[in-house]
Amino acid sequence: MQLSGIVVAFSFWRMSVDITSAGHAPPAARKTGRRLRPFQAAIGLTLGASVLVAWAAIHVGGVFFFDVGWPSVLFVPILVAVQCWLTVGLFIVAHDAMHGSLAPGWPRLNTAIGAFILTIYAGFAWRRVRDAHMAHHDKPGTAEDPDFFADEPDRFLPWYRAFFLRYFGLRSIVFVFTVVGIYVLLLGAPVLNVVLFYGLPSLLSSLQLFYFGTFRPHRHEESDFVDRHNARSNEFGYIASLLTCFHFGYHHEHHDEPWVPWWGLPAQWRQARSS
Questions:
Q1: Which residues fall within 8 angstroms of residue 211, CB to CB, at 6 or more apart?
Q2: How many CB atoms lie within 10 A of CB 216?
Q3: Which of 205, 182, 207 shows the shortest CA–CA distance to 194?
Q4: I need a labelling partner for 193 at 20 to 30 A (CA). Which of 30, 60, 157, 187 fits?
Q5: Over the stretch 247-262, which tens digit does the pLDDT of each residue have?
Q6: Predicted structure pTM score
Q7: Which residues contact 138 (CB under 8 A, 6 or more apart)?
Q8: Cβ pair 232, 225 in contact under 8 A
Q9: Sign (positive/negative) of CA torsion 153, 160, 260, 27?
Q10: How far apart are CA 251 and CA 215, in angstroms?
């Protein structure tokens, strides 16, 4: 990312987290009997870094260097789709950091990485998003769940609207407008490129995350939920699960063992199906 963008992101990141006070993992991540994967921190950090580097490459290349003309315009839908998927991946990495499963035993590192990613994602405040997510795990699918829409728990659009407005507030608006202003006015990025490779993937990723990671698992259907988690898992295979939401669609398994990293959820899902 360009220097000005880094300064903006760092400023918002510093406002969202005090590293020196983040010495403990969130309550929902401190469960007894949890089983860690071999080399879990190394694998999680490597995969997380890969997602971040790929996202940054398309972001910088698309916003500042891609010439939207003929025939390069044919590649725009592909790049937008890939960037949307990578943006989903960024949030999933930050989600693992909330649970301490990104780098087990390194709470300050989880906090630093999670706060940085949430900042560049949409200027989100780490503590606010993390605390809301822990409240979601404490009372999933109830009126006390900040991610649940108790008024209409089976309708996508009203729920998404409430979900979007709950998290995308004034702080995010200021952040996005600041970044766009720097990109266009100071660094000379074409407005169309900013819309295509920054705005559109971010918006589409929120829809993708919400649909596959919140609405489908927690919506009310004719059949009841199997337990207090009030969550269902999809029946997608490995590739479809990865492409839709980085395996976050195996949602009951996540609620049952929230310390399992995203890349370990397929094994949990297969184990649950075979038991």
A1: 156, 160
A2: 19
A3: 182
A4: 157
A5: 999 999 999 999 999 9
A6: 0.87
A7: 28, 144
A8: yes
A9: negative
A10: 11
